[in-house]
Amino acid sequence: MPKHVPTVAIVGRPNVGKSTLFNRLVGKKVALVDDLPGVTRDRREGEAQLLGLDFTIIDTAGFEDENALTLPGRMRAQTEAAVASADVALFLFDSRVGILPLDEEIARWLRAGSTPVVLVANKAEGKAGNDGVLESLSLGFGDPVEMSAEHGEGVADLFEALLPLLEPEGYDDTPDEPAPYYDEETGPLKLAIVGRPNAGKSTLVNRILGEERMITGPEAGITRDSIAIDFMWQDRPIHLIDTAGMRKRAKVQDKLEKLSVADALHAIDFAEVVVLLLDATLGLEVQDLKIADRVLEEGRALVIALNKWDVAEGPSSLFNGVRAALDEGLAQARGVPLVAVSAATGKGVDQMIAAAFEVREMWSKRVGTGALNRWFERAVEANPPPAPGGKRIKLRYITQAKTRPPGFILFGTRVDQLPESYRRYLVNGIRKELGFGAVPVRLTLRAPKNPFDDK
C-alpha cells in the first residue's frame, strides 16, 4: 500500500507570496503570480517535494474580512475549507511590511482551530524583514521560519519545521510503491472545461464533484487560474481542469486576464478532451466558434455542452439551431458531440462525461494498415483524383502514423498538386467509414524522393 501523503495549506492575507511559495514547492510555475493583490481565488493543489519530504500543497486565496455573500467572503470560505482538511497550515506573512491587523485576525482564527500551524516570515532576505520577524512573536506561534519564496532561501528551515508534523514517527525515506499503471486508453481522462466568462464552468465542476469546490457567483471572470482536480466517475478516473473564461482577444487588455487566458490555453494543450461550455440563454456566438477552432487546431477531441438548459427558451429549436451552426462553422469536425446540460440541476452531466470518454476512444483509435488500405482503394475507385494539366496524380497507399490525434500519411506521385477538396474528401471518409467521428484527423501527403533531384 502506498503511504499516506499529508496535506499542507498555505494561508495568509493577500499579496504575501503564497502563490510564489506554492510554485517553489511544486517545482514549476503553476499558480498565477502578480503584484496585484487577490490574484488567487480558488484553492489549487499540487504535489510538493521538499528535500525528499513529499506532501500535497494547497494554495489558497488571500484571507479577507468580508461578508460571506461577497466574492472575498466566498473566497475566504474556500480557504477555511482547505485549512480544515489539511494536516498542517503554513501561515505566511510579509516580514518587510510587518504584522497588520488582518494578520492578527488570521492568527486568532488559526489558534481557534485544530490544524497545526507553522508561521512563515516571507521576503526575509537581507535585514529588511528583521522588525517584522520580531513583531510576529506576538501572534503566539513561536519563532517564524524565515525564508524567501522567490529566491529559495530558507527551504531547509521550512523542512525542519514541517518534518515533525508530517512525519511524527520519524522520517521514512523508503520509496513509495509505484503508482498504478494506466495506458493511454484506460488512464485518467484529462478533461478541460472551457468557454466564455459566466457560462457556468465552475458551477458545472462543482456539480460533477458533488461539492462546492470552486468559487461561483454572478460576477463574470471569477476563475483566474486553471484548477486541476482528480476524481472518480463510475469507477473511472478523471483529471478535471476548470479554466478562466476566454473573451474576444480585442477585449482582453488587463495583464492579469491575459495571464488567465494563457493559462486556459495551456490547459487545452494538456487536455485529451475539451468540453466547450455554451450559455443556452445566449446561444452560439462567434467567440465560441473561435475557441472550438483553437481546440481542434491543437488536435484535441471536442465536446460541446449547452449549459443553463433548465432556463432556456424554445429548447428544441435552440438545440437544432446550434447543431446546424456548429456543422457550418466547424466544417473540419462536422458532427462534434452536442449535449444539453444544466449545471444547476445536474441534467445531462453524466451524458456529457460519457461523450467525453467516447470521443477519447476515437481520438486514441488505430486502424490496421490492411483495413485502412482496403478502404482507401474503394475511396479512390469511387472518386479518382483529378488530373491537373492532363497529368495524372497517382495515389499509392496510406498508413496511420500516430494517434491522439489520429494522423495519416498518404503516399503518391504529384501529391503536391492534390486539391484541398480531395484531401477533405479523404479525411471525411476516414472519419465516417473508419469510426473516427468528429475528432481532428491529420493527413500528410508524401511523395517518394526522386533520385535525380540533386543531379
From TrEMBL:
EngA-type G domain span: 6-170, 189-364
Alphabetical list of PROSITE patterns matching this protein: G_ENGA
Chain residues that bind GTP 1: 12-19, 59-63, 122-125
Pfam families: KH_dom-like (PF14714), MMR_HSR1 (PF01926)
Gene Ontology biological-process annotations: ribosome biogenesis
InterPro entries in UniProt: G_ENGA, GTP-bd, GTPase_Der, KH_dom-like, KH_dom-like_a/b, P-loop_NTPase, Small_GTP-bd
Keywords noted in UniProt: GTP-binding, Nucleotide-binding, Repeat, Ribosome biogenesis
Signal peptide region: none
Annotated binding of GTP 2, by residue: 195-202, 242-246, 307-310
Domain of life: Bacteria
GO MF annotation terms: GTP binding
Quaternary structure, from the entry: Associates with the 50S ribosomal subunit.
Family in the record: Belongs to the TRAFAC class TrmE-Era-EngA-EngB-Septin-like GTPase superfamily. EngA (Der) GTPase family.
NCBIfam families xrefs: GTPase_EngA (TIGR03594), small_GTP (TIGR00231)
Function: GTPase that plays an essential role in the late steps of ribosome biogenesis.
Protein name: GTPase Der
Species for this entry: Sphingobium boeckii
Protein encoded by which gene: der
